Structures are given as C-alpha cells and as structure tokens.
Fold this protein.
Amino acid sequence: MDIYDFLIIGGGPAGQAAAIYASRFRLKTAIISEKLGGIIVTAHEVENYPGFFNGTGEELMKIFKKQIKYYKVPVIESMAVNILKNENGFIVKTYDNEYVSKTVLIATGTAWRKLEVLGAKNFEGKGISYCALCDAPLFKDKVVGVVGGSDGAAKNALLLAKYAKKVYIIYRGENIRSEPINTERVVDNKKIEIITKSNVVEVKGESKVEEVVLDGGKILKIDGLFIEIGSVPNSFLLKSLKVKLDEKGQIIVDEGMQTNIKGLFAAGDVTINPFKQIITASYQGSIAANSAYKELKK
C-alpha cells in the first residue's frame, strides 16, 4: 500500500491552498473530497478576496481548481468516514477504501445549522431552503423570509430581492450584524424589511410553506423561508481520536495548525477561527502544509 506524506480531507479553500503548498514542497499529497469547492460555492457574490472581485464563490473555486490541476494533485472523490492512528502515521477510511499517510490535514469546514422549530423539517425542499444561490430564482415575484442576522443573511436577502417582491429578515437580536457596507445596502433596499427581536417558532402550510409564526404571535404570510443561522463544524471524523475540541466542536490548533496529536493538522472553518473567511481558511491551509513539511523533514 502506498503511503502518503500529507493527506488532506476536505476540498474547500483551506484544503486546496494546503494542497498547492504541499505540492510545491514536493510532498506526496492527495485530497479526499466528494467535490472540490466546499460550502463557499453557494456564495452568490465574493467581493473581499484580493485579486478576485464581483464573482461567485463557484467562479473563485474554479480558479483554485486550476491550480490544483496544474500541480497535479490527485483528488480522491469520496467521503472520509474515519481516521485511525497507526505506526506509519494515520489510516484514513472512506466508504470504499482506506489510505495511509504520515500526516493528515482536517479541512472539512462546516455544515449549515438547521432550523429546529415546529414544522420546519417537514418543509425542507418545500419552501425552506439553506441555499439562496440555488433557489432564489424559484421565488420570482413571491414573498420570502430570511432567518438570521449575519453578513450571510444580509447577502442572501439582497440576492433574493432581485427576484422576490418582498423579503423579510427575521433576527432575534436588536440589530443585524452584517458588514457595514451590506447593512447599508439592506437598509436602502425598499423590498427588504428587517424584523428584529423575533424568532420563528413554527412553520405552517399544506404542501409547501405558507406562513411562519413568530414568538410574539405575529404571523407572516410567505412563500419561502431561507435559513442563515450559522454553521456547525464537521469534526465528526475525530471521534476515534482524542483530539481537543472546544464546546462548539471546533478543533483546537496551535499557531502551526497542529492539533494535540502529532502529525494531525486542521485548518479552515472547522477550527477555532473567529473570522471565518476564504482568505483566512487559505492562510491556515498554507500554514498547515508548511508545518507538515517541517515535521516530515525532521
């Protein structure tokens, strides 16, 4: 069985950046990912990545992918389901195979946090969506809601306003907390109405979403509900290893992106990173590759 120097689990910005640097360090490297790109491919507009302006997340990831192809980094199109420690380093198991590597990078990112209120699960794909880029055109001239107050919620509301006739932002806090530039855009958009200090407590309808009930008893008649209430780290792979996590399940790493287990690194949104951006994930991925290179060189 071939033994890799550096095996990367995850194909988002952190994983791809790590692969680029690992290849330049001449480490025998591969990426395990069902699809390159990660959750960022659902972003309808990226304006804050240096050198790339006013394009979609998918378009940016296509540029990353070109570099992966240029450096001839193999991509194993599968899902990692477990990691074990052995005398050679680590065994990474997928659904249909297993791979041995001296060092491993966890760059699995995050998954959308689900809306867990009465009726919500029944309407997933029937008016409830977690991807505005995917589904916004389906709500042309309709009334929709966005749950959340983050920058992502503001961006989704702005995208939806291009199609829908009315967009509600429903947020539990006093003020939405998006970047000031996006807050200004939301406030200036006449199609968008912000409802603060409110939570959705129930989703109702027959065969699709028809209305939501807020915790004050107020009812909003809507045709669709887009959820942007944060994410949860994909750290489930580490159950068999005693990797240190915080209370949110985020991986704790040192300045070299190494976990408490020698040879096991983590980068990107799956780690404790208060500023989860494409650029910070890419930075962490490059640091992890450099740290692995130094470790293997000893």
Remarks:
- The domain at 114-227 is CATH 3.50.50.60 (FAD/NAD(P)-binding domain).
